[in-house]
Every structure is written in C-alpha cells, then in structure tokens.
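Kindly inspect this chain:
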Amino acid sequence: MIKVAVMGAAGKMGGEVCGAVLADPGLDLVGAVDPAVLDKEIPQALLTAGITVLPGKEGLDAVAIDVMVDFTTADAAVENVLWAVENDIHSVVGTTGITEPDIKRIRGLADSGKANVVLAANFALGAVLMMKFSETAAGIFDQAEIIEMHHRGKLDAPSGTAIETARRIGEVPKASKVPLSDEREVKGSRGGRLGGVQIHSVRLDGLVAHQEVIFGSTGETLRIRHDTINRSCFMPGVLIAIMAVASTPGLTVGLEPLLEI
C-alpha cells in the first residue's frame, strides 16, 4: 500500500487527485493540505472519507508518507518538494511555472538523496502524445505556432504544456526562425515567441485545458490538437506516476519515460 499526501487538496486538481487516490485499492490517502482551505469548498471525496484538510504541512507525519503529490503554485511547489526530498518522501508534481533554476535545484537534491521526483507539465495521456507527435512533425515541417486555451483562473501564461511543446519543437533541427511581422494596430497580436515558435494564450470561462499545434509548409498545414473535457483525464497519468516514482531515480521530467515512449 502506497501512502500518499496531496498538497493543494482543496483545489480543483487536488480534489480530483484525492478522489482518485481514495478510489484506488493500492493507495492510501494519509494527508491532505491546502493553505487556502478556509476559502474553498472541501471536495466531496474528502468529506465522504472523513479526511481533514490541513492548512499547512506542519501537521503531517512525514514518516507515514511514501509519495507527496503537488498541485499548488510554483513557489509553494518548490518549497513542498524540497521538504519532501529532505524527509525522504518521493514527489509527483503537476504544478507548472517552476523556473529552470528551481528545477536544477530540485534535480541536485533528488539526484543525491533517497527520494525521487516526477515533474510533468501535463498528466493527460493524450497531451503527452500530442507533444510527442509535435516533435515528430517538427522534423518535417519547419514552421509551427501554438494556441493554448485554459480557464480564466489559470495564473500562468503561456501554460507549462505550451512551453514544453515549444521547447521540444525548437530542439528539432528542422525548425526555422519565425519571420518578423508588422503588428500595426494591436501590439502583441502575434502572441509571444519562444525560440522559433509563436505561442498564443487564451483565458476564458467555459474552457478547461486545450492546445493546438499548427504546422505549416508549402500548400498545406497540419494541426495536432488535444482537448481536456474534464480534469478526470489527468488522473490515469497521476496514478501511473505515483506508482512508478519510487523506482525512477532522481528527477524525471515528463511522463514519457514512465510510458516508455
């Protein structure tokens, strides 16, 4: 039985994770933390199970935790992962916006300690394939732009998935520089550029998480799109990571190594 603690347990993603852990016979939810618990509605899964959401990790028994799952904010996630590694607790992190210097810091501790870390921009299996397919397409098409769309409450823009997708496309030798364009009347209408890829971010109520990668070449375009209908789609990936992190040394970025693709 793998004993799991969830950070950000009262949030939308954290609540889904708690429900998935409670429903899995091989997992035991031993802790739930959310500093904003007083301002949020407690997920029904936690109420049914009679689990109290703590305002801080100080109330957790670190010795009783095998894996910490974090869906919080970038600053909080880094602090939580460092705490977990120092307490020999493996971590599965879905929080985006963590900076490269902080990732290097986490890698250093994970590589030298007893606890491992899995950090993924997206746990939806379809999104993982979308990024993989985009890498393949980038070897044939030399122009690409990304449109990513999320709910209005998402704090970071562009999304971690869009950044990771653009990074992977940019590492393929075929990728070309984006030609300069005159925005004329509306500054910023071409979105932002990461390497050779333009990224356009949309934030609207009614959306969950969506990304389309558009490749262009002479006389044709190729569109690779992933749509999240509801947050339950992230749970299979999260559960895979929880079960695999103990046997995945150091820091693992992305689900691909766990899926062997």
In short: The domain at 2-119+232-259 is CATH 3.40.50.720 (Rossmann fold). The chain has two domains: 2-119+232-259, 125-229.
